[in-house]
Amino acid sequence: MVARTTKSMQTIEQLCQDMSCHVKRGNIALYNTLLKIFLNNNDVRKADRLYRQIKRHSTPTAMTYGILMDYASKRRDLRSMIKYLDDMAAYSIPVDYAIIEITVSTLCRVKAFDLAEEMVKELHRGCEKLVPPRFQQHLLCKIDIRKKRHYRRKQRRVNKKKGL
């Protein structure tokens, strides 16, 4: 199985090199798929190299940034999240529901529940089209659930230390 996976990864890498050499403008769907494969295999170095290729030979999309931000979110890497949001602004790529959801999840992962709530409310006030009332309610409910889960776990740890 490992040999087959290694061979597949070598084939994918060769495909990336061929695309960059022979194709002036890459197929973003293919690039995004490859990016997701690299990140699923935790090959950050290759994913980063591919991301630079995407910027050089194509135009990143909201999907590209969704893939990158989802991976950064799982690693609780706020610095990368901010960098990707800045890159989106530089490419004039509008923030979509998925990006907002990933950002809220990241803030919850780092226990910044109040900041997540504030961001959702501010986005709703600033642009109701971007965060309509139902989506706002969904996000606030999600934040509340994660906050309660965090405090329940914290309370269990405290009780365990006390011997309760």
TrEMBL record:
InterPro entries in alphabetical order: PPR_P_subfamily (IPR050872), PPR_rpt (IPR002885), TPR-like_helical_dom_sf (IPR011990)
Highest taxon in the source lineage: Eukaryota
Repeat region (PPR), residues: 27-61
Family note: Belongs to the PPR family. P subfamily.
Official protein name in the record: Pentacotripeptide-repeat region of PRORP domain-containing protein
UniProt organism field: Rhizopus microsporus var. microsporus
